[in-house]
Amino acid sequence: MSTATESRPSNVEYVEVTTPRVHNLHHVEVLTPKPDESLDFFTRVLGLHETHREGQSVYLRGAGEWARYSTKLTEAGAPGLGHMAWQVAEPDQVQGWARRLKEAGVEHKFEDGGTRFAQGETLSFTGPFGHRTELFYDFERYEDPNPSALLSQPMKFPTPGIGARRLDHLNITAANVDEARDWYSDVLGFKLREAARTPEGDIGVWMSVTSQVHDLAIMRDGMGERGRLHHIAYYLDTPETLLRAADTFVEEGTPIDAGPGKHGLTQAFFIYVFEPGGNRVELFSGGYPIHGPDWKPIIWDGAAIEKAIVWYGGQLPDTFFNIAT
Question: Which residues does the UniProt record annotate as the domain VOC (predicted)?
Fold first, then answer.
């Protein structure tokens, strides 16, 4: 009688092979020429919490985050993105990514665990579009001295300022979005979720490695420059919290770039502001999850692009499309 499962031949050696996979966005390094003013904005106004200082950098986290930090604020001569850092899916995949990047012709550097604050062995490289990137697996978790009784929450939820819960995504720029889309897909394994498409090519793409509708967005850089940041985004629990944030920004004199409003793309409720150092910051609520492996990307083209950009709310200003750091 045959069985449903056949045994493996005893004379054949099987080796488990782990395919390296980017798992989630862990943190971003934000450069600022006004470190004190930027720190005041990210803590007192946005509501992030300081956890560590080292050199010219301050490490911050949201009340809903389990890691020691999600934002590294570093003093620099000009604003911009220092680097973006992604956690990989398994401990052995850091070395796996080293081999993958070598095959793709990407120069990279390996650093032992502990070289960088609160994270394990790290692979760092500069992507073909100029953005510094880190890949790692191990990181130190935040341990609150007065923990919440709600065990699924890393700390009691205080509400300083706006009370941003966590880092949600970032948006970078590239002179050729089609090339950037294909590289992040083919080399790093990002999945295309939505795109704004013209006959000349994509002007923006929204991609993810998680079930979020996007972890990374890429917009066309009208200046044709490399390595620029359009914005970083923090998650708010509700659209009502976002409206309260708008009141806070007006009270604080924080320059509002766009919003409040809602994008058709990603179904995001949004408001964009400039922090004192000059970087654009989005507060984000809404969105939608993607669970199926056979997701068909949503393509906005033709007349639909207008509603993709703004579903409702005021039209985005020229600064939204022209300014990146």
Answer: 24-138, 166-286
Evaluate whether 173 touches 245 at the Cβ level (below 8 Å). no
Query: Residues 257-285: pLDDT tens digits?
Result: 999 999 999 999 999 999 999 999 999 99
Asked if 134 and 123 count as a contact pair (C-beta separation under 8 A), the reply is yes
Q: Give per-residue burial for 221-249: e unless 16+ CB within 10 Å, then b.
A: beeeeebbbbbbbbbbeeeebbbebbebb
Secondary structure of residue 128 in the 3-state scheme: coil
Ordered domains of the chain (ranges, CATH): 22-136 (3.10.180.10), 166-322 (3.10.180.10)
Rounded to the nearest 10°, the torsion over CA 169, 32, 46, 195 is -20
With contact defined as beta carbons under 8 Å apart, do 144 and 65 qualify?
no
Strand duo 256-262 + 268-274: pairing: antiparallel
Q: pLDDT, tens digit, for every residue of 33-92? A: 999 999 999 999 999 999 999 999 999 999 999 999 999 999 999 999 999 999 999 998
Cα torsion 218, 222, 223, 224 to 10°: value is 60
